[in-house]
Amino acid sequence: MKKFIIYGAGERGLWCLDFLKWRKLEDCIAFLCDKRYAEIGNINGKKVVSYEQAKKENMPFLVSCGDSNIASEVLEMISNDGQKGYVFEELYKVLGEDQAVFLREWCAYHHAKNNDQWFDDAEKQDAVDVFWGGNTIFYQYFRELDLRNVIELACGRGRHVPHYMKQAKAITLVDILEENIMICRERFQNVDNITYYCNNGYNLEKLADNSYTALFTYDSMVHFEMMDVYAYLKDIYRVLRKGAKALFHHSNYSTDYMADFAHTPHARCFMSKDIFAYLANRAGFKIVKQDVIDWYGIESLDCITLLEK
Predict the structure, then answer these.
(1) β-pair type (212-217, 150-153)
(2) Which residue in 3, 52, 136, 236 is deepest, having the highest Cβ count within 10 Å?
(3) Residue 105 located in a structural domain
(4) Torsion 163-168-172-178 (CA) sign
(5) Cα 85–88–94 angle (5° rounding)?
(6) Same domain membership, residue 266 and residue 186
(7) Is 111 inside a domain boundary?
(8) Which residues contact 88 (CB under 8 A, 6 or more apart)?
(9) If you write DSSP's letter for every residue of 277-289 in order, what string do you get?
């Protein structure tokens, strides 16, 4: 296993360490280095050493400075000393991973660790009404779904379920986070038409072919990497019955193809109405209709798309 050194034992360094522990990759971290090494000693079982000592190990550095200007200065110093250095967004290079895989895991971690308040806020009436209040465009699209056997993809903690569970004969809730699935199990323990599936974040491999009458996803696919969106579309096509429809709330942000979800408005991935239609077509779907929508004051940030197999 390739090892590296986290440069900086402050809040951001702890955050990097926690992310890697969450992924069970803490063995990749040889130790941390920081100017305050003597004062800190160790963090969560990882030794903190001086930069001079760290250089002797000839391992790559992961620079965890929150200030981009300071990070640039540190990277320049590391380079001048003949060492390799990366910022957090380049961690996939240190790990030898595909960038899309890394960003998928980073997005999942972000939702698992940092979004308790977001999930609480999402349950409030004004947030729910965006999707289910009155005659919203989301609900207009949703009414076209056949709910006999419906999948909700990226269900989170189940905030949408109460709004359609009485209409549905069978529901399958899917999410990449086991914690969310456990919360949904507890929340809907007295509902007997729901099954649960913790998936891998890019397909539905455990679900049967040609078995489901509908699928939808709200306020989640907006964060997905384009490669994962396409992987999902292909597998959704596989599991849906002929004539079944799928409803997607996705990003329409195509300003900066290099940015990851953590550095875009409302954490949107690089996507557009037309790109999504192209991917859906290549996956085998017919595009029924699409509408570009504003999102919390940002014009044309998102899109909703209805597809048919």
Answers:
(1) parallel
(2) 236
(3) no
(4) positive
(5) 55
(6) yes
(7) no
(8) 12, 16, 62, 63, 64
(9) HHHHHHHT-EEEE
Residue 246 is encoded by which pair of tokens?
């799928």
- Does residue 94 contact residue 123 with C-beta atoms inside 8 Å? no
In a domain, residue 193? The reply is yes
Flag whether pLDDT at 67 surpasses 90. Answer: no
Full DSSP string of 190-207: T-TTEEEEE--SS--TTS
Distances (CA, A) of 50 to 24, 44, 195, 250, 299: 26, 17, 52, 46, 49
pLDDT, tens digit (0-9, with 9 covering 90-100), for 195-238: 999 999 999 999 999 999 999 999 999 999 999 999 999 999 99
Full-model pTM = 0.85
Main-chain dihedrals φ then ψ at residue 128, nearest 5 degrees = -70, -35
Q: Cα(274)–Cα(271) distance, rounded to whole angstroms? A: 8
Same domain, 88 and 194: no
Task: Convert the pLDDT of each residue in 235-279 to its tens digit.
Answer: 999 999 999 999 999 999 999 887 777 778 888 999 999 999 999
- Looking at the fold, whether 123 and 217 belong to one and the same domain comes out as yes
Q: How far apart are CA 203 and CA 104, in angstroms?
A: 12
